Every structure is written in structure tokens, then in C-alpha cells.
Amino acid sequence: MQKNNSNFANNQSKKPKSEHVVNNDIPYKKVFVLGPENEKIGVLTKEEAIDKASEYKMDLVLISIENNKPITRIIDYGKFKYDKKKKQKAVKEKQSVTINREIRLTPLIGQHDLETKARKAREFILDGNRVKVSVKFRGRERSRTELGEDILNKFYILVEDIAKVSKEATLVNERFLDMYIEKDKKKVEALNKKNNEPSQEQGE
């Protein structure tokens, strides 16, 4: 009796840490087996269960331990891992967090500086970030908000091939004119396609 208890304790100490343990790596002498369609097969020795899985040309996978009883299932483990990874990737893409970035402009910004800011904005946009483009008014500039609108238009032209306006320019606290832009996937795909097309000279 003591020997059996010792073996049981050793098995418990070997309780798998990874998500799934497969075939001979399962540290239990007897397991409860579920078939490929999740049907109950019953309690078998580990060797019998692995042989059963082999009949299906599949794997025996430890899926859970309930009340100290190991539950296994016969599945195509390679396909199972592939499908799970695919689902996790899809979920991750849906849950991807949009990061907000900010580009600060002034109503009288020079063309060179405007182009430099636009290049930075392009990096943010292509990384999937949402960009707030903000024109800050000082002193008398507050009465010339049309200057800010003009600058925002010039700025947007520099990124229009990859971006779309997600929120039109809005005056905030009479000091900031804020516009939000983000990546336009269709524009980016069209641009990438165009850039990857061989030129006529190369074709000749």
C-alpha cells in the first residue's frame, strides 16, 4: 500500500506544467479516454490508450485533470495545435489596441518642417497607430483659425496616399485645431501593389 501511495505521490509531483502532454510523456499509468468525436471510451492503461490512438493514426493528449483523475483525448495533435494557433492569432488581431500618437503643428510652420512632421506621421500610421494632428494657436493667431485649416490640408495631402481622416478638424478650447487620421488599408494595399509592379523599362 505504501508503495502505491508513493507512486501516486510521484505522479502528482510530475503533474504537467505545460498546456498539453502527449503520448508517452503522460505521467499516469491509467487514464480516462475520450475518442476523436469526444465519445467516452473509458479507463485504460496508458499503453492501451496510446495503442487505441494509433488505430486512429492520432495522438493521445492529456487535456485535464479532474479530481486527481487524468482525462485524455484522442486527437490529431498537429492539426489541433495549428487550428488553435490560427484562432489565437485571429482573436489577437481583433483585440489589437490602437495607439494614439500626436503631431503638433503651428499655423506658420515652414514647408520643410511640415514635410518632416509628415514623414514621422507616416511611420506612426503604417505601424497602425491613430494620429492626432494638432495645430496650436498663440496670441492673435486665435482669430485666424483658417490658417490652421490650411496647414492641416497641406499636411493631409502629404499622407493622403496611406491615410484617411477618422475625425474632421475640430477647434478645442480656442487654442487647438485637432484632426485625427489613421491608416487606410485599401490605399496602403494599392500603394504596395503599385510599388511592387515592375516598371516598363524593366519589362523591356
Present the secondary structure layout.
Layout: H1 2-13, E1 21-22, E2 30-34, E3 40-45, H2 46-55, E4 59-66, E5 69-75, H3 77-94, E6 100-105, H4 111-126, E7 130-136, H5 145-159, E8 163-172, E9 176-183, H6 185-196, H7 200-203
Parallel strand pairs: 2-5, 6-7
Antiparallel strand pairs: 1-4, 2-3, 4-5, 7-9, 8-9
Explain what this protein looks like in three dimensions.
The protein has 204 residues and is α+β, with helices and mostly antiparallel strands. Helices cover 43% and strands 29% of the residues. It has 7 helices and 9 strands. It has helices spanning 2-13, 46-55, 77-94, 111-126, 145-159, 185-196, 200-203, and strands at 21-22, 30-34, 40-45, 59-66, 69-75, 100-105, 130-136, 163-172, 176-183. Strands 1-4-5-2-3 form a 5-stranded mixed beta sheet. A 4-stranded mixed beta sheet has the order 6-7-9-8. Strand 4 (59-66) and strand 5 form a beta hairpin. The N and C termini lie far apart (86 Å).
